[in-house]
Amino acid sequence: MKEEVLKIEDLVVAYGNKKIIDGLNASIYKGEFVGIIGPNGTGKSTLIKAITSIIDSENGSIFIKGNKHTNLSKRQLAKLVAVVPQEFNIEYDFTNFDIVMMGRNPHIARKNKLGKKDYEVVKEAMVMTNTWKFKDRFFNELSGGERQRVIVARAIAQQSSIILLDEPTSHLDIHHQLEIMELIYMLKEKRDITVVAVLHDINMAARFSDRLILLHNGQVLAQGNPEEVVKEENLSKVYDMEMIVRNNKILGKKEILPLRVIKKEINRKHIKIHVICGGDTGGEILEQLNSLGFQVSAGVVNQGDSDWEICNILKIPCVDAPPFSHFTSKEASESLEFIRQSDYVLVTNVPYGKGNLINLQVLKETKIPIYFLKNEMQIDYTQGQATEILNELKNKENFHFILEYKEFLEKIHIMN
Amino acid sequence: MKRFIQKYFLFFIIIIAFITIFICTTIGVADISVSQTIQILFHKITGIGNIEGVKDSTISIIWNLRFPRVLLALLVGGSLSMCGVSYQGIFKNSMADPFLLGVSSGAALGASIGIILGLNNSFLRVDMISILAFIFAMLTLVVVYNISRVGKKVPVSTLLLSGIALSQFLSAMNSILMIFSDQMSRIIYWTMGSFNGKSWEDMMLIFPYAIIGFIILYILHRQMDIMLLGEDTASQLGVNTDRLKLIVLVVTTFVTAATVSVTGIIGFVGLVIPHIVRIFVGPKHKKMYPYSFMLGGVFLIFCDTIARSLMKQEIPVGVITSIFGGPFFVYLLKKRKRGGI
Q1: Which is the most buried residue in A143, A407, B73, B215, by most CB within 10 A?
Q2: Rg over CA atoms, chain A
Q3: pTM for the model
Q4: Complex-level ipTM
Q5: B112 within some domain
């Protein structure tokens, strides 16, 4: 078990009568990167202020390396905890070197002059953050990302055991957001510093944190590794919106895809639509139809296909087949069963091979309206079999070509 | 050029201070030459040289009237400037001056009460009006500080507001006293500030406040720098901001109250000098304190010399500081905007 560097027990912090933090418990261990996530006004920044004694707590206690934080002087506290704020502006012409040197303050006895060691520490911190090159320039002259690097350098120069970050990247563009996060991650790796970061970008938090703490109404709603915390069941309690939680296969992390907050109130459950898709052609359509309130089904799709994943996430019933397998007549009849219960069939511009040709064939069996998304690309990989079926379908009365998905919506709205 | 000025700024100011002291001691109604002035001062300070040929009245004018007055102006100008630096740092507000929290209004009220009560006697060779002014000035801070306290903390924003409120209230009280008193002109004259008739004793009275105050504030220079980053950040960098505020407020109030009680209210120095110095040397207090002290001193000697020699009747020095300081300050601000300096 690693050393517990920060322990928060039953913490209550209030502004006036409003309890911002209400009975919060958390433990943070040496060398961890802990992300604190949660919606606005849930006490994330307040927590940082409470840890650094800027606001007093009403109840509970905070222990930093075993010391109760109210027993520590400001100087002792600053030796243990450094803070990187959201954004930092000053009106005065301090050079970047001056700013970073201020990080040495807790280590300098009042009358002592700045020593050689302080200079070395500051230089190292500035080299590490790639800010040494503008040490003599004024802090005011730097861009947002550069400033934040200087502030990180100041926190490094403070040589504290814990670095607290209060939404350190919220004013930066994506390049600089990533830069700061990587820098802090590197610090944690190289120096074994404990990092506690308040972040509102959940994907960034899941990507860099060893552990996440999800706050809600001033309490811990969930904590654990990102896999355990970034789940729809947790996040939907906290964020009132439609979202998709999925695996980001490139980064190997959980990822949230926020969809929409303002919900369409119209219930269209009485209208049933079957979507024939596959190969990443149906994701957007499935999601939109689902959110518009239609009763949607899909199939046949291969397991592991991204359209199949979307169906799983959105809980859309679908007929599936093992990966790369030829769809069988059993699956075809299941699919046809769905189609029989539907009011419309929507066919995406999925290409056809021997494996999924059945998806086209079943359309011959139905009399309900079929909307077929047409595109310029080749879709026939069956030496003409698909084209033949398509020509047959074209002659059916219930068959319509459409050029884009919106056309489908227009058509069925006119009818309804 | 700017680099050069920055590097040798203190050196320049000290040279200028010496020249100003000599020249301004020489200038006056009685016609005395520079060489005589130097001769007298040199002899009096070092004991070397011979001043037997010089008239007693000349020696007396230089040594007992003008020189202590010039030195007093140096101390008062320096003290007000360094207090202004401190206030502008603590309040992170460029409008802050040493009188911001009502210390001067308190002193004025104390002085008015003294004048109206006709207290012309003195205590330990300090006249009662000054003592009352000093006491009222200190009391003002105690009241403002306690009004502003929220739990254990004293936020600067409430400090500022309660200071302004109390200051206005005390000024109103003072106005009432003036209206119902037959000493109105004396009170008004007192509030405008003057070095008229000040002696070695007045100079020696201010001296310990100015020097001890300077030393304490100078020791705090690094923490004052960090304070400019804002109270929360300063606290997170290990500065005990509440204690720092208390020390600075107590020290500056002692110094300001002492100067105001002796010379009356001399405005503008404490506001403008820190700005001018900051333009030249940057915001670091390690430089701000000594440079502001020297420049503030020189500026006030200069203004006082004009005040006593421009017209037959002496003009209150507070008027001169504003007349000369105001336009010069505006000029600097304009020039700075264009990035000229």
Answers
A1: B73
A2: 29
A3: 0.81
A4: 0.84
A5: yes
